[in-house]
UniProtKB/TrEMBL annotation:
Species, as recorded: Paraliobacillus ryukyuensis
UniProt-listed GO biological process terms: DNA recombination; DNA repair
Transmembrane regions listed in the UniProt entry: none
Domain DHHA1: 341-436
Protein name: Single-stranded-DNA-specific exonuclease RecJ
Signal sequence extent: none
Keywords per UniProt: Exonuclease, Hydrolase, Nuclease
InterPro entries per record: DDH_dom, DHH_sf, DHHA1_dom, RecJ, RecJ_C, RecJ_OB, SSDNA_exonuclease_RecJ
Length: 781
C-alpha cells in the first residue's frame, strides 16, 4: 500500500458524451469538452478552432474612446507620451505592444519601468515628478496603476493626464485618472480576465484602427506567463499568438528562442518555463529595461547580445532562488507550530525580486499559503510576495487585515506587500488564524483534478495528437490529467541524485514508459508485483528521432498492501534503509537477535505477543520480518492483530530442515528395518558411514533416532542404539520432537520456499481475518 500525496478529484458531468456527435470527435475529447463547461456544438467549434473574429470589440471597454482622443491630441500637438509599465513578463510585453503601436501612429513616446528595489511595484510619485520635469504631458500605464491613488493625485496636480490600463483586482475606490481602461471597470465588456498585455493590445487595436496581427507574438507572452485563465479571448489570443511567435521574425524573439533552445513550434510550456522566466529574471535582479529593449530592437546582433545577457541573469536568478529557498525551509522546519496553517518567513538580505518564486516553492513543498519577506531595517519595513493554495483567496483574506500593511495588492493566488517590520509577527499570527478558521485538513493537500480513467493500452501517438486539439493549456483549461492502472514492468531511480522515478507500465498489449520528476524516493515503496494507480499527463517523448508516448507522473498510489521479498538476501539492510524510522518495526525470533545498526523499533515475536492487546500497532506502516518464527502460529497471531501497509521478509535459514533434514516416512521405516536386521547401531562409527551410504545429513539420522527414542521404539545405552523387543504400536505424529520438526518444516515450506504470490496470499488471508474482526468491532458496536 502506498498513499497518494494529493487528493484525487474526479471531474463529473451529467451531460451526454454524444452532445457533439455531428463533429465526429473521439469520445474522450467530447468528454473533456463537456467537463470544461462546453454544452453546444457552436461553443465546441469556437473552443477547438479559435477565431480572431470572435474577439470582442475594444470599443466595449469603458473610457477607451476618451483615451484614444487624448492620445490623438498628444500626437497632433507633438506632446511627449510616457508608457509606464511593470517589470514582469506581462508588464514588459504590455509596454512593448503599446510603444510599437504609438510609434506606428507617430507619437513622440518613451517607456519607463520602475526599479523593483528602489521604487517598488506600480506608479510612484518620484517617477511622475521626474516625468513632469522631462516634459511628459501624458502618461499611460500598462499592467499597473489601478491601485496608484497618490501618484494619480500628483499627476493631476502637475497637469499631467494619466490613462490607466490594467487588469489587476479593483479595490473599493478608483484612482482619479483622466481615463481608466480596465475590463473589470467595464460593465459592457463581456470578458473580465484579460492579462495586462491583452488590455494594452485592445488599446493598440483601437488606436491603430485595424487588427494588428504583428503584435500577437508579444501578446502571447504576457497572456501565458501571467497565468490568466486561458478561456474566451485569452484562449483566442494564446492560440493565434503561439502560431505568431513560432513564425516570428522579430529579432528579439528569434534570439530568445535560440538561447532557450526552442526550435520550430513554440508551445505554451515553452513560454511558461523558458521564455517567461528569462524575461522575468531581468526585473527580478536589476532593471527590466534590457527585456523591453530585446523585444523592441530591430537589430539581430543587438538582440543576440541582449538575449545572452538575459540568459546569464536568469542563471544567476536560479542560484539565488535555490539559496533563499534553502534558508526559508530551515526557518519553517525550526518552528513548525508557528507555521502550522500559514507560512510567513522573513530575513534580512533576501533579494526581493525572487521572493514570489520562493513562496511558490514553499507552497508546493508544504501545501500551505506562504509569504516570503525581505527585512529592510534601515527603512523599518518588510517587503515581499505571497502565493496561495486553491482553497485560500490571498487577496480577499489579505484585505481583511489590510490595516497591517502599508501596501497590499494582487490576485486570489498571488499578492505583493509592504509592511512595517514590527507587523511581521502580527500578520503571521493573523493569517494563521484566518487559515485555521477557513481551511479543512483536505485543503492542505494538493488537489489533482482527474479528467478520466484510461487503460495503458489506450495510450498511443494518435490519442496524444488528438488531445492537442484542446491546447493551449493553462489556467481554467488545464492539461488533462488521467488515472491509469497497471503493473510495473520496470521500476528504477534516475538522475545524478537518483531523485527521479522511471516506470514501465505493463498493459495487456503494450508497455508504456512513465517518468516522475522529484519523486525518486518512491522507488523503495514499489514492488514489481504491485498494481499501481498512476495520475499523470500524456506527452510525446522524442529520442534519437523516435517518438513514443510517455506518462508524466504527478502522483501514484498502491491500494493493496505490498510484500517486499528479500528472503535469503545479504543486502536487505540496504533496501530498507530509506524507510521511515518512526513508521517501521522489525520482528526477530529472539530478543537477543536485535540489530543495533538498524534505526527501527525492534521486538521479538514473544515480546510482541505479550504486549497489551490495546497497544496500537497501526502507527507502524512497515513490518520487517528479520527471522523466521518458530511456528506459523506466532506470525498468524501478529497478522490477525495488525495489517501493515507493507511487509518486508528478509529472513534466511542455515539448516534446510524441509528438504535435507526432515525425513520421509519411508526413511523412518527403512532405518527401523535396518536396525532390526543389525540389532544395534553404534553412533560414533555408524552415523558417518550411513550418511555417506544414503546421502543423508547426519542431522537427519540423529533426528530419526530422537523420534524413535521418544516413542520407545529403541533404547540408547552408552552410544549404542538397539531396537526394543516388543514396542507399543504408535504413530510418528505422537512424538513431540517429530511434531516440532514437522511444524518447523511446514513453516519453512510456507514462509521460505513458497513463491512471492503464495506467501502474499497466505498473509492476506490472515490479515483478512484481522480486517473482518476490526469491521465487526466498528459496525457491530
Amino acid at each position: 500500500m502506498l498513499q497518494s500525496k494529493a487528493n484525487w478529484n474526479y471531474k463529473k458531468s451529467e451531460l451526454s458524451s454524444q452532445l457533439f456527435s455531428e463533429l465526429g470527435l473521439p469520445p474522450l475529447v467530447e468528454q473533456l469538452l463537456i467537463k470544461r463547461g462546453i454544452e453546444t456544438t457552436e461553443d465546441a467549434l469556437a473552443f477547438l478552432q479559435p477565431k480572431l473574429d470572435d474577439l470582442h470589440a475594444p470599443s466595449l471597454l469603458n473610457d477607451i474612446e476618451k483615451a484614444k482622443q487624448r492620445i490623438d491630441q498628444a500626437i497632433d500637438n507633438g506632446e511627449s507620451v510616457l508608457v509606464f509599465g511593470d517589470y514582469d513578463a506581462d508588464g514588459v510585453s504590455s509596454t512593448a505592444v503599446l510603444v510599437e503601436a504609438l510609434r506606428e501612429r507617430g507619437a513622440m513616446c518613451d517607456f519607463y519601468i520602475p526599479n523593483r528595489f528602489t521604487e517598488g511595484y506600480g506608479p510612484n510619485e518620484v517617477a511622475f515628478r521626474e516625468a513632469y520635469e522631462q516634459g511628459f504631458q501624458l502618461i499611460i500605464t500598462v499592467d499597473t496603476g489601478i491601485a496608484g491613488f497618490a501618484p494619480a493625485k500628483l499627476a493631476k496636480e502637475l497637469g499631467i493626464d494619466l490613462i490607466i490600463t490594467d487588469h489587476h483586482e479593483v479595490q473599493e475606490q478608483l484612482p482619479d485618472a483622466y481615463a481608466i481602461v480596465h475590463p473589470k471597470c467595464s460593465p459592457n465588456y463581456p470578458f473580465k480576465e484579460l492579462a495586462g498585455v491583452g488590455v494594452a493590445f485592445k488599446l493598440a487595436h483601437y488606436l491603430l484602427g485595424y487588427f494588428p496581427k504583428q503584435l500577437l507574438d508579444l501578446v502571447v507572452i504576457g497572456t501565458i506567463a501571467d497565468l490568466v485563465p486561458l478561456t474566451s479571448e485569452n484562449r483566442i489570443l494564446a492560440y493565434h499568438g503561439l502560431q505568431a511567435i513560432s513564425n516570428s521574425k522579430r529579432p528579439g524573439i528569434v534570439a530568445l528562442k535560440k538561447i532557450a533552445g526552442i526550435q520550430d513550434t513554440v508551445s505554451e510550456e515553452d513560454i511558461g518555463f523558458l521564455i517567461g522566466p528569462r524575461l522575468n529574471a531581468v526585473g527580478r535582479l536589476q532593471s527590466a529595461y534590457p527585456a523591453i529593449e530585446l523585444l523592441l530592437t530591430e537589430d539581430p546582433e543587438e538582440a543576440a547580445y541582449i538575449a545572452n545577457e538575459i540568459n546569464e541573469i536568469n542563471q544567476e536568478r536560479q542560484k539565488i532562488v535555490a539559496k533563499i529557498t534553502e534558508e526559508a525551509i530551515k526557518q519553517v522546519e525550526s518552528n513548525p507550530l508557528q507555521q502550522q496553517h500559514f507560512i510567513v518567513v522573513a530575513q534580512e538580505g533576501w533579494n526581493e525580486g525572487v521572493l514570489g518564486i520562493v513562496a511558490s516553492k514553499l507552497v508546493r513543498t508544504y501545501q500551505r499559503p506562504a509569504i516570503v519577506l525581505t527585512l529592510q531595517p534601515e527603512k523599518q519595513r518588510a517587503k515581499g510576495s505571497a502565493r496561495s493554495i486553491p482553497a485560500f483567496d490571498m487577496f480577499e483574506n489579505g484585505m481583511e487585515i489590510q490595516d497591517l500593511f502599508q501596501q497590499f495588492g494582487g490576485h486570489a493566488q498571488a499578492a505583493g506587500m509592504t509592511l512595517p517590520i514590527e507587523n511581521v509577527d502580527k500578520i503571521r499570527e493573523r493569517f494563521n488564524q484566518l487559515a485555521q478558521q477557513k481551511l479543512t485538513p483536505e485543503d492542505y493537500q494538493e488537489q489533482l483534478e482527474i479528467e478520466a480513467i484510461i487503460s495503458s493500452d489506450d495510450i498511443d501517438m494518435k490519442l496524444i495528437n488528438t488531445l492537442t486539439q484542446l491546447a493551449p493549456f493553462g489556467m481554467a483549461n488545464p492539461k488533462p490529467l488521467f488515472q491509469i492502472k497497471g503493473k510495473p514492468a520496470e521500476v528504477r531511480q534516475i538522475g545524478s541524485k537518483q531523485n527521479h522515478l522511471k516506470l514501465a507500465l505493463q498493459g495487456e498489449r503494450q508497455v508504456v514508459q512513465a517518468i516522475g520528476f522529484g519523486i525518486g524516493e518512491l522507488f523503495h515503496y514499489i514492488t514489481p508485483q504491485a498494481t499501481i494507480d498512476l495520475v499523470g499527463y500524456l506527452q510525446i517523448n522524442e529520442w534519437n528521432g523516435k517518438k513514443n508516448p510517455q506518462i508524466m507522473l504527478q502522483d501514484l498510489a498502491i491500494k493493496e498492501w505490498q510484500l517486499f521479498d528479500y528472503r535469503g538476501s545479504k543486502f536487505w539492510k540496504k533496501q530498507v534503509a530509506s524507510l521511515e524510522q518512526d513508521r517501521t518495526m522489525i520482528i526477530t525470533a529472539d530478543q537477543k537477535k536485535a540489530d543495533p545498526s538498524l534505526p527501527f523499533v525492534q521486538y521479538s515475536y514473544q515480546q510482541l505477543n505479550e504486549l497489551d492487546q490495546t497497544t496500537q500497532l497501526d502507527q507502524f506502516h512497515s513490518l520487517i520480518l528479520a527471522d523466521l518464527p518458530k511456528s506459523r502460529e506466532e506470525l498468524q497471531l501478529l497478522l490477525k492483530r495488525w495489517s501493515p501497509k507493507r511487509i518486508i521478509v528478509s529472513y534466511h535459514i542455515q539448516d534446510d530442515h524441509f528438504s535435507q533434514v526432515f525425513p520421509k516416512r519411508e526413511e523412518f521405516k527403512w532405518f527401523y528395518g535396518m536396525l532390526l536386521k543389525r540389532e544395534q547401531f553404534v553412533l560414533a562409527q555408524d552415523t558417518e558411514l550411513l550418511a555417506k551410504h544414503k546421502g543423508w545429513k547426519q542431522g537427519k539420522i540423529e533426528f530419526i533416532i530422537r523420534v524413535f527414542s521418544e516413542l520407545e521404539f529403541v533404547k540408547i545405552d552408552d552410544g549404542i542404539i538397539r531396537p526394543m523387543k516388543h514396542p507399543q504400536k504408535r504413530d510418528l505424529t505422537e512424538s513431540t520432537v517429530y511434531q516440532e520438526m514437522l511444524e518447523q518444516a511446514e513453516t519453512e515450506k510456507l514462509l521460505y520456499y513458497s513463491t512471492h504470490q503464495e506467501l502474499k496470499e497466505w498473509m492476506t488471508s490472515q490479515m483478512d481475518e484481522h480486517g473482518s474482526m476490526k469491521e465487526e468491532l466498528i459496525y457491530g458496536l
